Amino acid sequence: MKDLIIGCINNYHPEQIKVWVNSINRCGFTGDKVVISFGVPTETINYLIDNGFDVLESTLQQSEFIHNRRFLDIWHYLESSEPYRYVIATDVRDVLFQTNPSDWLQTNLKKPILASSECIKIKDEDWNNRNVLSNYPHIYPYVSEGQACNVGTLAGTGEEFKHFCLHLYHFIITKTPSMETYADQAAFNCFVHMKHFKDLIQLVNSEEGWCCQLGTTLDPRIKDLYAPKLLEPVPVMEGDNITTSYGKVYSLVHQYDRVPEFKNILETKYS
Q1: What are the residue boundaries of the structural domains of the chain, listed by start?
Q2: Which of 84, 99, 164, 240 is deepest in the core (most CB within 10 A)?
Q3: Helix (DSSP H) and strand (DSSP E) numbers for the chain
């Protein structure tokens, strides 16, 4: 069976997604590449097609947000396609692939769904803490001590990932009405740390080399604030690669644009 990388976008021009596109095309990945568009310029559609991506059109309903709705559309796509071995679903604007994600998953995936740690507890990071507390206040006491995991770099086995996306979407839309429009990560973190999902979700630490979440570890605006609360060593740059503290090249890099010195090097590399 083939593998799949899938992302969802709206209002992006080629310049905003070229790092994601070029890194996928250079990392050795040989599976299907799909983008679900919620409205992008024609030049972006043509750019994606020219680079070997299938582009599917979708529409947001009134009051819907792409980061919440995307899981329903990913489920629709997986429901209508041939079965996949692995599915990798990521944000697009600020994610890049340094190595073939299929290789990492084949070696390291032990459970159907992979959750990537942000190296800090939910209660210790302001945005995650507020997001879970405001959207799921009744669940917050059960999950606040758990590691924050990032919903923008998901992966898993095809059939299980398909159904997980549908469950996640329906859980997202049950959120408590609040000023927080981003419920996807809060919902995902509730799943990660609720007991009945323990056998389904593999929480992978940063030092395992799957993905680094630079927003909580090296963003210069907050790194000094969170440094004492981090649960692992921070990623480092070796040459033009981002690695673990012991030199293992991450398969995925997320939020590289929040670290200026990384951003400049990586955007040049994948231009």
Answers
A1: 4-269
A2: 164
A3: 11, 12
